[in-house]
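Propose amino acids for all 126 sites.
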């Protein structure tokens, strides 16, 4: 998928503190054109108000939401601590919001625990 490839390149560069190429933004910008929904004037209790109507059908809106979050991370730049999961077979990116700034896993429940179990098993074998 085009969007996924460009996100991998961009976040990979951010993790390695390398420059981000302008042409990697193409797929994100294309998806950003797909809106997650639109505003619509509706009448409720005799008053007009502007209401957000989520896009229905298909999963384009989900892709648009992903592109939107990614774009916000890119705009924040170095302020966001983008990391890659320490599990070599995982490869997921995450932003480190931990107080100690030393988060290693995309998810403690998934990769973190798996690592704990693996190193426990290794200690038992040796
Ligand atoms: Zn992981």
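Proposal:
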């Amino acid at each position: 998928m085009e969007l996924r490839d460009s996100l991998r390149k961009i976040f990979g560069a951010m993790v390695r503190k390398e420059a981000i190429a302008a042409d990697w933004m193409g797929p994100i910008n294309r998806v950003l054109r797909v809106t997650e929904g639109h505003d619509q004037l509706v009448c409720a209790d005799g008053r007009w108000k502007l209401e957000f109507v989520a896009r229905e059908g298909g999963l384009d809106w989900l892709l648009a939401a992903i592109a939107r979050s990614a774009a916000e991370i890119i705009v924040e730049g170095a302020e966001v601590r983008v990391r890659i999961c320490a599990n070599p077979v995982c490869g997921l990116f995450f932003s480190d919001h931990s107080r100690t700034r030393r988060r290693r896993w995309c998810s403690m429940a998934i990769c973190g625990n798996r690592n704990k179990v693996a190193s426990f098993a290794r200690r038992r074998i040796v």
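Helices lie at 2-15, 26-32, 60-76, 108-125. The mean pLDDT is 84.
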